[in-house]
Design goal:
The chain is about 70% helix and about 0% strand. The chain has about 140 residues and is an all-alpha fold. Helix 2 packs across helix 3. The longest helix is centred in the N-terminal third of the chain and has 27 residues.
């Protein structure tokens, strides 16, 4: 049980860090440019603000272990959308002009794992809600 929780903690924090920095990069690099790109691929430009916000705030929440299952579900939806709308045509490994969806697939898999299993070790959720069903034992 404890090994599983350590693994979930590593996945939760890693996913949180990756998404936090992706969201941060969108804001630092000019969110208006991202909004314009969203428009160019047929998505509403303002959606770029929502995506970047979810990545930034959701990344922090995952690192802290706050709302792990819900945030991971949002991240899974983001990865599904990114893969289907942008990356699928380039193939799994890319086509020489555009990146493939291998990273998106890995992040999707991590997010789905966290939606199913959660991550209680060193999480704010455990502090707030307690260790309801299972106790973490070594």
């Amino acid at each position: 049980m404890f090994k599983t929780e350590i693994g979930a903690l590593v996945l939760r924090v890693t996913l949180g860090i990756i998404f936090f920095f992706h969201g941060l990069a969108k804001f630092q690099g000019g969110i208006e440019n991202i909004a314009g790109w969203f428009d160019s691929i047929g998505l509403p430009g303002p959606m770029a603000y929502a995506v970047a916000g979810v990545e930034l705030i959701g990344g922090i929440a995952l690192i802290l272990g706050l709302g792990t299952k819900a945030v991971s579900g949002l991240f899974a939806l983001l990865m599904l959308g990114a893969t289907l709308k942008v990356k699928l045509s380039a193939g799994l490994l890319g086509n020489g002009e555009a990146a493939g969806y291998e990273l998106d697939l890995a992040l999707f898999a991590i997010a789905i794992f966290l939606v199913i299993n959660g991550s209680k070790l060193l999480s704010i959720d455990s502090l707030i809600f307690g260790k309801k069903e299972e106790q973490i034992t070594m």
